[in-house]
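Colleagues,

For the teaching module next term, I've prepared a clean inverse folding example: a structure given as tokens, and then the sequence designed for it. I'd like students to try predicting residues themselves before seeing the answer, so please don't circulate the second half yet.
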């Protein structure tokens, strides 16, 4: 479905726990204040990709999978921590991941996003979970994916999600998004990064970066981040040419995410 370790690795080992530091956090409550019509409107960046509202998902298969990935990433952090000790062997997959993050740390802005997108795309061969693991649906943490060198769309997206955060991008500005490809009739996972008040999409199907609104014929379904899983509000996407009626948008059946 759906190199050589430098001193920068120390920074990585500080940042990685921020990606999945613990259980899904509670959502903050916001107080709405009055706006003086005489004051100029304040332009705010969209909280979610595609500028759509999203509501928390509190149960279900997708949340279970995302929490499971979080646990796997925390376990992989221990491996990365061991890479600091020259007396301990550092697995090839960990070295490769740290090299990707180091390249990201050496850059800023769109260049950082682009180098991580390219490196992860080139490091993984696209293959279905059924072909690789003999199961319809399996989500893997970055080192597991880089160890096999193969994965499907959500494996690419997860690796990019963790690498971007480790390379200094704020956890609030990195998402994993599941969309429905209306042209192909299949679901697809991508990573998204907020930059200069725009959401940039990192897709395993292309090396070029697109804004979310430039993605051709897709219907946003879910957004995943350090706060958990959210579902894009059906009313917000009701006018899209979806094959699912408003209010009936659900996660795709296991194995139906394209790679």
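(Answer key — instructors only)
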């Amino acid at each position: 479905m759906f190199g050589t370790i430098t001193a920068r690795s120390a920074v990585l080992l500080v940042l990685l726990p921020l990606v999945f530091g613990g259980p899904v956090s509670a959502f903050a409550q916001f107080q709405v204040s009055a706006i003086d019509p005489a004051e100029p409107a304040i332009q705010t960046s969209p909280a979610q990709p595609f500028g759509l509202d999203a509501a928390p998902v509190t149960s279900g298969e997708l949340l279970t999978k995302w929490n499971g990935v979080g646990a796997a990433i925390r376990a992989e952090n221990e491996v990365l921590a061991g890479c600091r000790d020259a007396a301990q062997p550092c697995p090839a997959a960990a070295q490769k991941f740290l090299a990707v993050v180091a390249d990201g740390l050496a850059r800023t802005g769109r260049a950082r996003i682009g180098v991580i997108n390219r490196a992860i795309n080139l490091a993984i061969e696209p293959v279905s979970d059924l072909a690789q693991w003999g199961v319809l649906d399996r989500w893997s943490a970055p080192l597991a994916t880089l160890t096999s060198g193969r994965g499907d769309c959500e494996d690419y997206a997860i690796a990019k999600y963790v690498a971007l955060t480790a390379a200094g991008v704020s956890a609030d500005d990195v998402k994993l998004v599941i969309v429905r490809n209306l042209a192909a009739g299949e679901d697809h996972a991508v990573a998204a990064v907020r930059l200069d008040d725009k959401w940039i999409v990192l897709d395993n199907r292309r090396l070029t970066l697109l804004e979310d609104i430039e993605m051709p014929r897709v219907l946003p379904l879910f957004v995943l981040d350090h706060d958990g899983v959210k579902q894009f509000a059906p009313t917000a996407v009701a006018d899209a040419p979806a094959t699912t009626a408003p209010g009936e948008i659900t996660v795709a059946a296991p194995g139906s995410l394209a790679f």
